[in-house]
Amino acid sequence: MKHRPLILVTNDDGINAPGLKALVEVARELGDVIVVAPDSPQSGQGHAITLKDPLRLKKVKLFEGLEAWECSGTPVDCVKLGKHIVLHQREADLCVSGINHGSNASINILYSGTMSAAMEASLEGINSIGFSLLDYSWDADFEQAKPFIRQIMEHVLEHGIQHSRLLNVNIPNLPTEEIKGIRICRQAEARWIERYVESIDPRGQKYYWLTGDFMNQDHDEDTDVWALENGYLSVVPSGHDLTSYKAIAPLKSLEKTLLTMNDE
Amino acid sequence: MKHRPLILVTNDDGINAPGLKALVEVARELGDVIVVAPDSPQSGQGHAITLKDPLRLKKVKLFEGLEAWECSGTPVDCVKLGKHIVLHQREADLCVSGINHGSNASINILYSGTMSAAMEASLEGINSIGFSLLDYSWDADFEQAKPFIRQIMEHVLEHGIQHSRLLNVNIPNLPTEEIKGIRICRQAEARWIERYVESIDPRGQKYYWLTGDFMNQDHDEDTDVWALENGYLSVVPSGHDLTSYKAIAPLKSLEKTLLTMNDE
Fold first, then answer.
1. What digits encode the pLDDT tens for the residues B225-241?
2. Sign of the alpha-carbon dihedral angle for B59, B65, B66, B72
3. CA-CA distance, B220 to A102, in Å (whole number)?
4. Do B112 and B214 form a contact (C-beta atoms < 8 A)?
5. What count of other Cβ atoms lies within 10 Å of the Cβ of residue A6?
6. Confidence class of residue B264 from pLDDT cuts 50, 70 and 90?
7. Dihedral angle at the C-alpha atoms of A33, A38, A44, A47, nearest 10 degrees?
8. B221 with B234: CB under 8 angstroms?
9. Whole-angstrom distance, CA of residue A113 vs CA of residue A47
10. Tally of domains within chain B
């Protein structure tokens, strides 16, 4: 890469999140950085976009010497506004999202604002990486993750991502020297065992809070969950095609059913 | 199927949407129906879940003789609350979502609350179908779609969905007799060409509204977009694994980079 790369940085925990600050610190060592991030936490927003409300963008001075904007919308809105309004004619060489406070391995990619932001950038043709640290606390220590994040960003800036434009990177919550290395993985098959905590508000109305436990159902050694449980960073190259190809052939009889119906 | 099936019905356009009413009318011919739908329109909510706010459920009398609940959350919240609170010990045989006002073909599955609700039910182990009619208007005529919807629901109730638990069904906006039949398809590769309409509010603050045009980039004849453009209903069996399997091998060199780093 000849020129100094332009890197768009976003997240879902909001522009004040320590994880974003850590990611900006790494990104600015490698290129010119522009930050567009939500003005409030947006965890669990998945691929939501704002259609009913107008969106706001505000330039903020949060990162010494860097252009940064906070956006009233979801993480996906941040990337869309970042591309069309903030970057405008400039082309980003890379989009990085995170560092998320908590895991986005396995099916968590579906619910994750961090990963949806990165996926949105990939749909726009920008190589993108979502980073998550397996520590949900606001005071998580992101220092340990930085050398790995830098290496992965450098790799993508130099080599691109063949057959994909999106990486889902999860980092075990371990000191740098205890991380065994990196594994290129597939997304584990897992589910959430969920329940609702029920309560009554002061007006006597019932309400519910979601809670639950993640349950891995996939014990092969080529998954992201396996890598993380065994002290490795997991990297899952990801796409946006949800087609179940194997299910196409067995469904073909349905084509006949409907033709018959119309012939009657 | 021996017993009368239990069918959970939801959507993303809200509990008052005409598309939901049409879907309920078909579903109740085939089984016992329970409705859990958002109390307000939730288009574009993707796989968002509500984490920051408590959720409310309210029993409503909207459908003669049917149990129906409105929920304060997203479409995915409706399915989770539907399963854990409303259905509780009862097991749904099928979840249907829609009929959405507008297309959810191709990458629209990512942004769609309709499809995310159906996907959530599939993650819970319930066979699920999302239905969308290619007519965005609130006054869309859903009658023409009903015979097809019934056939597809009957097929899934009888045969299940091999290798998948989720169908993304889109219906062209044509009179029944002009619909040529059904095609089992893959998701077309497409993108949105987007822009923001910029305006100034009465307080002098700039704001943005998202708008854009869908652009198909995939001209093969096995895609959902092709089917719809050629007068067929499209049925895409879908999953939740976003791994780009082809991208795994070329990335393996990254594993070595990091091992070297730790050895230094």
1. 999 999 999 999 999 99
2. negative
3. 40
4. no
5. 17
6. very low
7. -70
8. no
9. 7
10. 1
Q: Is the pLDDT confidence value at B260 over 70?
A: no
Confidence at residue B2, expressed as pLDDT on a 0 to 100 scale: 60
Looking at the predicted complex, does its ipTM rise above 0.85? Answer: yes
Identify the residue among A56, A208, A214, A253 best suited for mutation to test binding to B, counting B beta carbons within 10 A and taking the highest: A208
Q: What size, in residues, is chain B?
A: 264
Q: Are strands A67-71 and A32-38 parallel, antiparallel or unpaired?
A: parallel
The reply to whether B205 falls in a domain is no
**Percent of chain B surpassing pLDDT 90:** 86
Per the domain annotation, does A196 fall within a domain? no
- Per the CB < 8 A criterion, the answer to whether A17 and A43 are in contact is no
A227 half-sphere exposure, CB direction, 13 A CA radius:
27
Q: 0.90 cut: is pTM over it?
A: yes
Nearest to A76 by CA among A107, A23, A114: A114
Element (H, E) at A115: helix A113-123
Rounded-to-integer distance, Cα A47 and Cα A59, Å? 24
Identify the pLDDT of residue B258. 55
Minimal Cβ distance to A164: which of B48, B183, B244: B244
Q: Angle A146-159/A18-30 helices, nearest 10 degrees?
A: 50
Specify the CATH number for the domain of residue A27: 3.40.1210.10
CB contact under 8 A, B196 and A81: yes
Closest CA–CA distance from residue B86 to any residue of chain A (Å): 11
Which of B85, B151, B241 lies at the smallest CB-CB distance from A257? Answer: B151
Beta carbons of B57 and B71 less than 8 angstroms apart: yes
Res. A43 pLDDT band, cuts 50 70 90: confident
Helix spans in chain A (H): 18-30, 75-81, 108-111, 113-123, 146-159, 224-229, 253-263
Q: Which residue has the tokens 């740098």?
A: A176
- With 0-12 / 13-18 / 19 or more C-beta atoms within 10 angstroms meaning exposed / middle / buried, residue A189 is middle
Could you tell me the residue range of the domain that residue B82 belongs to?
6-189+219-263
B209 domain residue, yes or no: no
* B195 in a structural domain: no
